[in-house]
Design brief:
alpha/beta; Rossmann fold; 2 domains; seven-stranded mixed sheet; elongated
Length: 407
């Protein structure tokens, strides 16, 4: 094959709706300009292996995958340590641009690789497309990360079905949704589905998160609905609650958690909703409430759903934006779009704090939007105390606002 200039695409981390849309767009715009477009399977692992599995894109494959969920390129969370980079991937294929799709770890790894190659007199640009369904990357104008709205949309579809089951069966469900650091996904799903209770880590900005407080918030909602003659509901809890628990609190669960390289408990191995449901049942048995609750876990179901129109548009813009930044000679940057749809390069140093860490974007818990949404929840307050004594001897223990005040 003619030794054309090439673009190499790889994906790191976990799936998110819209990855194929980005890959498709990048492939189309570079193919149109005469480039060869290559896709590397298994992310960075493919760059640190003696052999690689490479997809040579043509228009028809790029066109076919545009609106599909998942990723046509196999993804990997591989992080090179003392592994040896296979430079021949770049040299033999005349690669001029490395396009990475993933989180900030993927972006920083790409920067290190291209800086290393430069020392070897191999000059390659790198442009990163930020991706996460958690929506916790601090992009300009609070713009969402691609995949978030599609994942939320799928979560709302499931959530509405679960809520209808609760109403039909006159039961309660305890639901957990993904979101390690921030509660955007849980917040968006719960408010869209009119769930009566929502618990996200940002709510505990004045007090320590404990399992007992989370359980009491859920029971507060169950009792309040009973007082209103409503015997069903769904309580949504962000998995970020678990990531923010102290070690002593995690130990109370009685599960020997494994931890990742960053010291985070690997919660993908356990059902958070099951843990909470058991704790809620135990507490209700203790206080004499005979109410059925069932666990529902929202996690991997969301990551490979088909992208909705919002993300199809955003991913198209970002894919075209990669070509724009490359043509302008930009490298070592993230591609982003402002609220007017204008493409801008974003550098990791612009997002990092003094320690070199990127502080996650959280739900703005003190915003009017958040306050209005929380007002729409069902929970016990002072005016309910007398009536609530039919169910609990000390209603103040289940008062939403008192649970969340400073210890």
């Amino acid at each position: 094959m003619e030794n054309k200039k090439a673009v190499l695409i790889l994906c790191g981390g976990g799936p998110a709706p819209g990855i194929n849309s980005v890959i498709s767009t990048v492939a189309k715009v570079f193919l149109k300009d005469g480039y060869r477009v290559l896709g590397l399977h298994e992310g960075f692992k493919g760059l640190f292996s003696k052999t690689q599995e490479i997809k040579d894109f043509d228009f028809f494959h790029a066109d076919r995958i545009f609106s599909r969920g998942g990723s046509t390129l196999v993804m990997s969370r591989f992080k090179p340590n003392k592994d040896t980079l296979n430079k021949s991937v770049f040299i033999d294929n005349n690669v001029k641009l490395l396009v990475t799709i993933g989180g900030d770890d993927t972006a920083s790894t790409a920067n290190r690789i291209t800086q290393y190659l430069e020392k070897e007199n191999i000059f390659i640009s790198n442009i990163h497309v930020p991706k996460t369904i958690d929506n916790d990357l601090p992009l300009p104008d609070r713009n969402p990360t691609f995949g978030f709205h599609s994942a939320k949309d799928e979560g709302v579809r499931i959530g509405n079905t679960v809520y209808e089951d609760a109403r039909t069966s006159q039961n309660w469900f305890v639901m957990s949704a993904m979101g390690r650091s921030a509660g955007h996904l849980a917040f968006g799903i719960a408010t869209s589905c009119h769930f009566p209770m929502l618990v996200i880590p940002e709510m505990f900005n004045k007090t320590e998160i404990t399992l007992d407080k989370v359980v009491r918030l859920i029971i507060s909602s169950i009792i309040k609905r009973r007082l209103k003659g409503v015997h069903y509901g769904v309580a949504m809890v962000s998995e970020g609650i678990f990531h923010n628990l102290s070690k002593s609190e995690l130990d109370k669960i009685g599960i020997n958690f494994t931890y990742d390289a960053h010291g985070h408990p690997e919660l993908g191995n356990v059902s958070k909703s099951h843990i909470l449901n058991v704790l809620v049942q135990e507490k209700m048995n203790e206080i004499g409430l005979d109410i059925k609750t069932r666990p529902i876990e929202l996690g991997y179901e969301l990551r490979c759903s088909r992208p909705i129109g919002f993300d199809l548009t955003l991913c198209t813009l970002l894919g075209i934006g990669v070509k724009k930044l490359f043509d302008e000679g930009k490298s070592g940057c993230l591609v982003s779009a402002n609220s007017r749809g204008e493409i801008q390069p974003l550098y990791l140093k612009d997002l990092q704090d003094e320690a070199g860490k990127i502080k996650p974007r959280l739900v703005e818990i003190d915003s009017e939007f958040a306050h209005l949404c929380f007002q729409n929840l069902y929970f016990l307050e002072g005016s309910d105390y007398d009536a609530a004594k039919r169910y609990v001897s000390s209603p103040a223990t289940y008062d939403f606002k008192k649970i969340l005040v400073k210890n």
